[in-house]
Sequence to fold (301 residues):
Amino acid sequence: MTNSNSAPEINLSLVKRLISGQFPHWADLHLEPFNSTGTENAIYRLGEDMFVRLPRGDWAIQQVEKEQRWLPILAPHLPLTIPEPLAFGLPVEGYPWRWSVYRWIKGENAIMGHIDNPYQAATELAQFVTALQRINPAGGPPPGHHNFGRGLPLAMRDDGVREAIANLHNTIDTEAATLAWEAALRTPVWDGPPVWIHGDLLPGNLLVEQGRLSAVIDFGGLGVGDPATDWMFAWNLLSVESREMLRAAHSVDDATWARGRGWALSVGLTALPYYQSSNPVFAGVARRLIDEVLADYKKGV
Fold:
């Protein structure tokens, strides 16, 4: 298997050859590119009920293998639909990595699709997080490069966060961001057993159908680590007051909640300067994370 920094051009012709050569029973199905807000994988619709997902670079290849192994194990225990792998492609036809075919899930991602009741969606997502954390983590992958370090102690993100704050001096309240980040760093680290985390519960990875949360997708951030990581969704879906309601309803302890807020801030801060020009949609998600964390900080929550 080739291991280079980036994939060759992924286009319709290449994907057709991959399907025809390895899964000839699907060769006659309609195939077309799908416009995704994600940056790590190319997506192609295959027929009415499937899609093909191909890593764009070697940084994403472990994610493919991880999803193939673990999603079928996790799915029966979760209250929301997650991707179902149907086939595992080989690196041939000039494409150097493994790739996947999944069952298609209806819905729009929560950036483009409207959520009628954000608090209800957040409650359902909290139930999803709780169920995920209850699954036996034995053998699960610890945090690392494969999942962007999601689930590691916040202190390991310090250099990157401070660099991002410096780069945003004309964009955000950098003094408040620095103080909020330093408060998160003072929170006790997680000293319990690692638990399953999705690692990237942001709107682009949530599907909405008829105004309701219907599925959680893209488990590239999957791993076992600090449970606080997955609570960062609260700073993207909710306001200060409704976040406190959610926290109370699910009995999240002070330290876990504070680390979750730190995760939300760190992801927002590092993503905003990176995506401001290249991906304005995701930059908007990052800005919402920052604004909501700073709203908490300024209200003393």
Summary: The beta strands are 31-34, 41-46, 50-55, 85-89, 99-103, 108-109, 195-197, 206-209, 212-216, 223-225. The chain has a mean pLDDT of 94.
